[in-house]
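Q&A log
Question type: sequence-to-structure
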Amino acid sequence: MAKTLIKRTQTGVRIESSLLKVLKGLAEYAEISLGDLIEGIVLHAFEGKAPFSAETQTVIEQLKAVYGCHLTAVDSHQLQESES
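Response status: OK
Response body:
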């Protein structure tokens, strides 16, 4: 398959701390950059496809436990930043 040439833009995205730790851990596990992981998740979501296999889902649950990430899809769009 031929590679698709793209242009990337550096961005400053704010994200919940434990969620970021899980994403970084998952990127390291998959041996890809955090940006590549996020792009892959978004591209799958845009097509209504699940981005992760059952095996990877297990790794995600382990990483969530290690980093104390208790967020779920139900929390989406309802997060409120603490004052501190």
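Response note: Residues 17-30 form the longest helix (14 residues).
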